[in-house]
Design goal:
2 domains, 0% strand
Length: 117
């Protein structure tokens, strides 16, 4: 299991457990997703790294390439490993409930301090 498969399994389990439960073959699903994410990461890493400047030293090159790999990994994990919004209905409901509670609390604080919100 590579890092993308691990990240996808964790994200889906946390954000869309009901969607995971409906998968016919979760192992195959996450394995294929990780394979596609790995390909995307390789391509994006190369794009972000760009061409090697002629005056670049060895250590500068290593730093540039490693930075591109880390940035690409973050982007790929966010884009490929998280479930789509439609699968995260429970999470959206929780966010709406949290938002309502925050607004309610703000109104209560405003009323207690006699200010408008």
């Amino acid at each position: 299991m590579n890092r993308f498969e691990r990240a996808a399994r964790e994200a889906w389990a946390e954000l869309a457990p009901s969607a995971v439960a409906t998968l016919e073959d979760p192992s195959l699903f996450f394995s294929e997703l990780a394979s596609q994410a790995e390909t995307a990461w390789l391509e994006l890493s190369a794009q972000l790294a760009g061409p090697m400047p002629p005056e670049e030293t060895y250590l500068e090159r290593v730093s540039r390439l490693e930075s591109a790999k880390r940035q690409a990994a973050e982007l790929v994990i966010n884009d490929w490993c998280r479930p789509p919004a439609a699968a995260m209905e429970d999470s959206a409901d929780e966010q709406d409930q949290t938002s309502r509670l925050v607004h309610q609390l703000a109104r209560e604080v405003a009323a207690a301090t006699d200010t408008d919100v």
